[in-house]
Amino acid sequence: MGCDSVKLVNTLALFFNHILSGARMNKPLHVLAGILFMGAFSVSAQQEEKPVQELELELEAEYRYFFKDAQFTGQLDHYPSIAIRPDYAIEWNKGYESINFTGFLRVDRDDERTHWDIRELYYQKAKSNWELSVGLKKVYWGVAESNHLVDIINQTDAVETFDGEEKLGQPMVQYSYITSKIGTFDFFYLPFNRKRTFTGDKGRLRFGTVINQDDIDYESGAKEWRQDIAVRWKHYFGVFDVGLSHFYGTGREPLFIFDPVGNIESFYPVINQTGIDVQITHDAFLWKLESIYRNADTQDFVALVAGLEYTFSNINGNGLDIGLLGEYLYDERDELSLNALQNDVFFGSRLAFNDIQDTSILIGGVADLESSSKIFSLEASRRFGSNWRAEIEARVFTDIDDVELILSNFREDSFLRFTLSRFF
């Protein structure tokens, strides 16, 4: 074993031990640390090839401004913050083995939004028709724009974004079997459940009663240590891309029960969730469908998102693409749905300039078909040079009806968010 290999193995081992020793889910992660260490050790066995390493760092300055006076005591209007996102990867054995790490840290005026997370830290081994991943990882399922129903593996980082697209790293063992004729089969063993974090008393986009994540209990006697499993099959047939999935374990959404005097009882139920996602590509059309059936002792329901996207490509030969989007959203839970999308329509437009600055704009809105409630949104991003990126996000809540159990808490929380990122 060469001197450089010894240094690399020792450095990785110390790194994994330091990171994981401070995590709250100590037992399973120390097992994962051992597996990751074995993966790092195998680097040294590849004498004929030098490992390929990549290290990137993103530093972000963020400013959020809420237009209206706060609805609840203690909330603020201005929220400056900073965030750090390190990204490291090392691969060897001709790229068939790798270790990947993505970290995250944010410091914010809201103490609950000041947090750190290991987004990803996993060892991966690939062969011609299978892949094995062990560690903390993020997995995305789904095709819809306005709501991601089937995407259940990872817990939502609820204090980061309103749309729920930011996720926490999930401890897992993932095995994927890949075939050309009958599709890809993904099997997941999920040994630990991570709780969702909610905004603190200083933060916006919260309930009148501040929710402490530690006060939310589990239906399962094993609590966060309940062993969960999931399976997914995906394949394509001509213009059809189809995914079928099933999850059995502790749900990622807590169930809230409100009593007449405003008290909240909450817990994470044990659920079975079966999902389907379909995308049909035909000329300039994308037809999309996501639907789930979730079964639990306390609640059974069906939800779906269905819609289309039509793209006008390379308008006037200048590279501009304009997409028109429309989706229908249904959730049988009605106002008890945490995302408040129970019988709504989404409409929007996506502009991709396809320029060297990677400029893009997404504008849209959601309108409730049973009330006057509406949410309008804007997301835009543009690179400056090779190392800078600026983003703007806006959410506007208008005519929020009093019958909206969730949205009524956000009626004064329209905001503008600006971020400036530097990449190294």
Explain what the structure shows:
The chain has 424 residues and is mostly beta strands. It has a single domain (51-423), classed as Porin. The chain has 2 helices and 21 strands. The protein has an 18-stranded antiparallel β-barrel. Strands 8-12-11 form a 3-stranded mixed β-sheet, with no helix packed on it. Strand 4 and strand 5 form a beta hairpin. The longest helix is centred in the first third of the chain and has 19 residues, at 3-21. Mean pLDDT is 89; it is low at 1-28.
Strand percentage, roughly?
over 45%
Give the SSE string: HHEEEEEEEEEEEEEEEEEEEEE
Overall tally of structural domains? 1
CATH class, please? Mainly Beta
The CATH topology label is: Porin
Fraction of residues in H or I helices:
under 10%
Low-confidence segments: 1-28
- From the spread of the alpha carbons, the general shape counts as globular
- Supply the number of helical segments: 2
Structural class: mainly beta
Name of the CATH architecture: Beta Barrel
Provide mean pLDDT, rounded: 89
Concise summary:
This is Porin. By secondary structure, the protein is mainly β.
Which descriptors apply to this entry?
single chain; mainly beta; 18-stranded antiparallel β-barrel; 2 helices; 3-stranded mixed beta sheet
What is the strand and helix layout of this fold?
Layout: H1 3-21, H2 26-44, E1 52-66, E2 78-92, E3 97-108, E4 115-126, E5 130-137, E6 170-178, E7 184-190, E8 217-218, E9 228-237, E10 240-250, E11 255-258, E12 264-268, E13 270-282, E14 285-295, E15 300-315, E16 320-331, E17 343-352, E18 360-368, E19 374-384, E20 388-398, E21 415-423
